[in-house]
């Protein structure tokens, strides 16, 4: 491999060919990625809706929902995770159909694994480089450049760590962010325990959820946390 990933990536692989899925999963894990594998479109859609991934590798010809339909549904739900379609169908009209559905790239089978890695690097670099400085969800607003957090018109007095945790959750609003992912993004290589994360979450929740305001920061038991509307 000519260029290493800058950080461990969280990858969703949706592929019904189990031999190919196993090959790609092993190769990506050897590169330091965390890989979740689904073998049908409905399962892949559910995972992409609920969890935060850096990229989705999505086969087109899947049982149930095909890759085009999964892509359309994710984009309609404002899920902006980069999507790389994998398919043996290389006709121009199929490529156009995939890109029009909202996919970011298209790789034809059979493919060289190094080419797949290069495509992943390119798409995750582009996603990281175009992160919005302003994030909104319900009555919560974050400006990452000004380091400002406002809820229901009132500015929140957050520490750098609390702000970083909230930004991580806001960038995947409506979906579960795994504990390990929060710790990795906020503390990087520093030694931190899950108990430490829980303490910071409690501090953040106290500042975020003033009396009379609906809950936005939810604990997803056994998984992690999410910013979403509704009760647990």
Give the structure's gist in a few sentences.
The chain has helices at residues 18-30, 41-50, 67-76, 92-101, 113-129, 160-170, 179-187, 194-208, and strands at residues 10-14, 34-38, 55-59, 83-87, 105-108, 134-137, 140-143, 148-151, 154-155, 177-178, 217-220, 224-227.
Sum up the structure in keywords:
12 strands, 2 domains, 232 residues, Arc Repressor Mutant, subunit A, Rossmann fold, 21% strand, 41% helix, 8 helices, five-stranded parallel β-sheet, four-stranded antiparallel β-sheet, alpha/beta, elongated
State the low-pLDDT regions, or none. none
Biggest sheet strand line-up: 2-1-3-4-5
CATH topology-level name of the largest domain: Rossmann fold
Please tally the β strands and state the result: 12
Binned, the helix content reads 40-55%
Mean of all residue-level pLDDT scores: 87
The named CATH superfamily of the largest domain: Response regulator
Q: Mind telling me the C-alpha Rg?
A: 19 Å
What percent of residues are in strands?
Answer: 15-25%
């Amino acid at each position: 491999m000519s260029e290493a990933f800058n950080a461990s990536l969280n990858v969703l692989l949706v592929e019904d060919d189990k031999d190919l899925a196993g090959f790609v999963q092993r190769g990506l894990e050897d590169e330091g990625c965390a890989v979740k594998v689904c073998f049908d479109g409905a399962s892949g859609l559910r995972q992409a809706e609920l969890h935060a991934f850096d990229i989705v590798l999505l086969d087109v010809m899947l049982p149930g929902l095909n890759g085009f339909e999964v892509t359309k549904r994710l984009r309609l739900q404002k899920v902006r995770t980069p999507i790389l379609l994998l398919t043996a169908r290389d006709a121009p009209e199929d490529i156009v159909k995939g890109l029009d559905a909202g996919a970011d790239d298209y790789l034809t089978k059979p493919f060289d694994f190094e080419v797949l890695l290069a495509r992943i690097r390119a798409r995750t670099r582009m996603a990281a480089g175009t992160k919005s400085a302003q994030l909104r969800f319900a009555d919560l607003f974050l400006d990452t450049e000004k380091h400002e957090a406002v809820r229901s018109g009132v500015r929140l007095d957050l520490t750098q760590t609390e702000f970083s945790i909230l930004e991580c959750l806001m960038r995947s609003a409506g979906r579960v962010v795994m504990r390990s992912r929060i710790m990795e993004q906020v503390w990087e290589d520093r030694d931190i325990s899950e108990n430490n994360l829980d303490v910071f979450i409690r501090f953040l929740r106290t500042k975020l959820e003033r009396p009379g305001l609906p809950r936005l920061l939810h604990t997803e038991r056994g998984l992690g946390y999410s910013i979403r509307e509704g009760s647990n």
